[in-house]
Amino acid sequence: MKAVIFAGGVGTRLWPLSRKKSPKQFEKMIDQKSTLQLTVERMRPEFKPEDIFISTGKQYVDTIRKQLPFLPKENIIGEPYKKDVGPAVAYAIACISHKFGKVEPVVILWSDHLVKKLDVFKKILTTAGKVIKEEKNKIVFIGQKPRFASDNLGWIKFGDSKKKEGDLNFYSFEGFKYKPDKALADKYFTDKKHCWNLGYFVSTPEFILNLFERFTPEISRRTLAIQESIGKPSFEEVLEKEYKDMPSINFDNAVLEQLEKESAYVIVEDIGWSDVGAWEALKEALEKHKNDNIVEGKVLLKDSKDNLVYNFEKGTLVVGVDLENLLVVNTGDVTLVAKKTSVSKIKKIVESFEGTENERLT
């Protein structure tokens, strides 16, 4: 079984730490490790270094090699242009197919998540891989049992159990909903037929590439040209030409939203998953109790609760008194102070910097 970890996003909701030149997944936010390093760490030893691939923008390849020096250089797949997740998945899967064949099970993962229940997570990967070896024209989606009614995540609707492997149920797939409104999220949380969509799935290269051929033929045609050039002197030229003209489209829009329900299973378990793509989500992932303060760096808090304070400037002490429900992030050139409930406004502020003297801070 092979794993492809996607690490190409920028992540403005974690600004000012996450920036274009150094996105969130490469910053050492937890125990002096980046979320990319933690993601790869949790795959081992079940996955050998040669079984783990990283999909990213070509401008980040050197950064990844420094953070993950044990991975083979050829396992870092650099996209020459940012074209959203659809083309990125197609290109990465084509590389896997070329090297390992059409029916080798592959799991798709993301580099900016945390998973606390590693035993459950690894059991799911092993079991899903076994099922895909038997049913090569299927996708197994991995869903998290929801902890609350999130209107900031995607959801998967699932039906009855179609098969059982050990103590894991493989439920029928009934559809997706991306970021429902609060009322709908409340309904999903209580009906017990929906789970959080993590973007994790297991399938075969052959099936995924066939889906591209059916639903987005232009991506399929250009990906096939790239795949046929791998290992040839013309590879870099072909990659540059074909990728530049790829349509920019999300993988969900390109493929998954058109997927027949009978082509997928859903596993729903509590793997202790958190998306740490925003400051308030990072706090929720790290806290043991809601009123905990989460701090990093030289920070002193007095009579304060339910805050996240990250100080990345070694020569500066950040002191907070009577703080509650706040985010404070100091990177040296920027200090962010915001309510936890105001994180959604950060992206708009960063976007407003374009064309101004503050653009260098993005």
Automatic annotation (TrEMBL):
GO terms for molecular function: mannose-1-phosphate guanylyltransferase (GTP) activity. InterPro entries: Mannose-6P_isomerase_type2, NTP_transferase_dom, Nucleotide-diphossugar_trans. GO terms for biological process: GDP-mannose biosynthetic process. Residues 2-289 form the Nucleotidyl transferase domain. Pfam families: NTP_transferase (PF00483). This is Nucleotidyl transferase domain-containing protein. It comes from Candidatus Roizmanbacteria bacterium RIFCSPLOWO2_01_FULL_40_42. The lineage of its organism: Bacteria, Candidatus Roizmaniibacteriota.
